[in-house]
From TrEMBL:
Its EC number is 1.4.3.19. Pathway: Cofactor biosynthesis; thiamine diphosphate biosynthesis. The keyword Oxidoreductase applies. InterPro entries: FAD-dep_OxRdtase, FAD/NAD-bd_sf, Gly_oxidase_ThiO. It is an enzyme of class 1 (oxidoreductase). It catalyses: glycine + O2 + H2O = glyoxylate + H2O2 + NH4(+). Residues 3-346 form the FAD dependent oxidoreductase domain. One of its GO terms (molecular function) is flavin adenine dinucleotide binding. Signal peptide: none annotated. The lineage of its organism: Bacteria, Bacillati, Bacillota, Bacilli, Bacillales. This is glycine oxidase. Keywords: Oxidoreductase, Thiamine biosynthesis. GO terms for cellular component: cytoplasm.
Length: 366
């Protein structure tokens, strides 16, 4: 039986482990801190490639859309395998604009996006307010994306962990730094423990640059702090994802509204700042005026792994053929977990990979 060790217990590492565990592979996850403790568990959980990728079609958009289309089956598999319930909502998105001049770009945007046979359409101000009467009347129109969705990230991470354990994946947390030593097999060790593997996957998100340096690889992955807050209104204020150029609102089944996100460069600092949350407060009232009267009940931050060109790193290293990289998913780790797990498992097992990965090769900057 092949042994694979995955370094990193975020949503990407957990998802790859789960896919491999269904294929008669002995899988171990090594997590420096706590599984899902950074970008994964701190996300709003949006599955919204049409809203977030609007400039033009490229390979990253195709990758993201393919993952969105996998999600109904993927989340059902995680739910069944774990026995853990979590929210998956096909709410759709209203991608809103505030100026008459922005209505024409909406037409340009939908002209290429509609080639994907999605049932999207432009809504007038009247149609937007008919769907969401609590939205600001400053909104001039929107694109309605009915097939976009969201997931409750903290519970989804718990389900992934439980699913992995139910399929006998060994998970080690709070183990500190991991050193990789190559030979006839790969050895991974900390100050107190050691593991052996046929292949290793580095899925350490914003911390991947350090492992890259140890392997002589230029792997430009940078931590971007994303700050988010949440509201608990007395009555439901929105039912769709509300997406704008400056922020978004995601309504959850528990009655809360997640409001994100302020981004800044702060190294590996994850404290919440007044400046970051105040920016959200200033903008959210421009989406839903009633939020101005409500104080967020929860504020948090996580580190998002950004790459130099915006594409993730996915692939095997030429000079280290036992080492595979899967990181740098930035704001889309939850969305891309489905397809990343599928293609990495295929590649590790020597199968035909179902999506071309050349654009994401980890050595493209070396």
């Amino acid at each position: 039986m092949q042994k694979v060790v995955i370094v990193g217990g975020g949503i990407i590492g957990l998802s790859i482990a789960l896919r491999l565990a269904t294929r008669d592979v002995q899988v171990t996850i090594l997590e420096k801190n706590k599984c899902g403790g950074q970008a994964s568990g701190a996300a709003a959980g949006m599955l919204a490639p049409f809203s977030e990728i609007g400039e033009d079609q490229d390979v990253f958009f195709d990758f993201s859309l393919a993952s969105l289309r996998m999600y109904p089956e993927w989340q059902a598999f995680v739910r069944e395998t774990s026995g853990v319930e979590f929210e998956f909502s096909s709410s759709g998105t209203l991608h809103c604009v505030y100026h008459e001049a922005d209505l024409l770009p909406l037409s340009s945007r939908i002209s290429w996006q509609s080639e994907y046979n999605e049932d999207m359409r432009i809504l007038s101000q009247e149609q937007v307010l008919e769907r969401e009467p609590h939205l600001s009347k400053d909104i001039k129109g929107a694109i309605y994306y009915p097939n976009e969705a969201h997931i409750y990230a903290p519970d989804f991470v718990k389900a992934l962990i439980a699913a992995c354990r139910n399929l006998n994946v060994e998970i080690y947390e709070q183990i500190g730094e991991v050193e990789i030593v190559e030979g006839s097999t790969v050895r991974l060790k900390t100050d107190t423990m050691e593991w052996e593997a046929d292949q290793v996957v580095i899925a350490t998100g914003a911390w991947a640059m350090k492992q890259g340096e140890a392997l002589g690889l230029q792997l430009p992955v940078y931590p971007i702090r994303g700050q988010i807050c949440a509201y608990l209104p007395e009555k439901p204020l929105v039912s769709h994802i509300i997406y704008t150029s400056q922020g978004y609102l995601v309504p959850k089944a528990n009655g809360t509204i997640v409001n994100g996100a302020s981004e800044d460069i702060a190294g590996f600092e994850t404290t919440v700042t007044a400046k970051g949350i105040d920016r959200l407060k200033r903008w959210n009232k421009k989406m839903v005026p009633a939020l101005e009267e409500i104080t967020p009940f929860h504020e948090w931050a996580g580190l998002r792994p950004a790459t130099q060109d915006g594409f993730p790193f996915i692939g095997r290293l030429t000079n280290h053929p036992s080492v595979y990289i899967a990181c740098g998913h930035y704001r889309n780790g939850i969305l891309l977990s489905a397809i990343t797990a599928k293609v990495v498992a295929e590649d590790l097992l020597g199968e035909v990979v179902s999506f071309p990965l050349q654009a994401f090769h980890p050595e493209r900057f070396s």
